[in-house]
Amino acid sequence: LEAAVIDPLTGLHNRRYLDAKLDPLMRRVAAGRMRLSALALDLDHFKRINDVHGHEAGDFVLREFAERLAAAVRPLDLVARSGGEEFVVIMPGASGDIAALAAERLRRRLVAAPYTLDGGLRIDVTVSIGVAGADPRDTSRSLLKRADVALYRAKEAGRNRVMAEAHEMA
Question: Which of 18, 32, 37, 45 has the fewest CB atoms within 10 Å, counting from its CB?
Answer without folding.
Answer: 32
